[in-house]
């Protein structure tokens, strides 16, 4: 294959990936020009929403978490546990860790927004 063609395909895939990321974010919670600071991604937004729902529960099933948050990818987020924020109690049942609640403080603006728009009451 032609190298220009391969480069074009790669650029299109990267653009689609970026577009998907920005479209799935709920707001702009990052400060421009900041280095050495964790940024808010759509994945992190979803993980924080899940942690919020689990914060006051001993544990919940994936089905209940999806229902309360509206996050279809909740199972994937909980099972991959990229940040180490969730513990699997039994098959399909999870709880939040203290580590999650300690790290979420770094994203207080977003966490407060999640608390204000409590989806559990819907």
Write a structural description.
The structure is a single chain. By secondary structure, this protein is mostly helical. It has a domain at 42-121: Winged helix-like DNA-binding domain superfamily/Winged helix DNA-binding domain (Arc Repressor Mutant, subunit A, Orthogonal Bundle). Helices cover 55% and strands 9% of the residues. It is built from six helices and three strands. It has helices spanning 3-24, 42-55, 62-69, 74-80, 98-104, 108-116; strands spanning 60-61, 86-90, 93-96. It has a three-stranded antiparallel β-sheet. α2 packs across α6 (108-116). It is globular and about 55 Å long. The mean pLDDT is 82.
CATH topology of the domain at 42-121: Arc Repressor Mutant, subunit A
Helical region count? 6
User: End-to-end distance, in Å?
Assistant: 53 Å
Shape field: globular
Question: What's the CATH H-level homologous superfamily of the domain at 42-121?
Answer: Winged helix-like DNA-binding domain superfamily/Winged helix DNA-binding domain
Low-confidence stretches: none
Largest sheet geometry: 3 strands, antiparallel
Compact overview of the structure:
The protein has 122 residues and is mainly α. The longest helix has 22 residues.
Give keywords.
122 residues, mainly alpha, Arc Repressor Mutant, subunit A, 3-stranded antiparallel β-sheet, 9% strand, globular
Q: SSE layout and pairings?
A:
Blueprint: H1 3-24, H2 42-55, E1 60-61, H3 62-69, H4 74-80, E2 86-90, E3 93-96, H5 98-104, H6 108-116
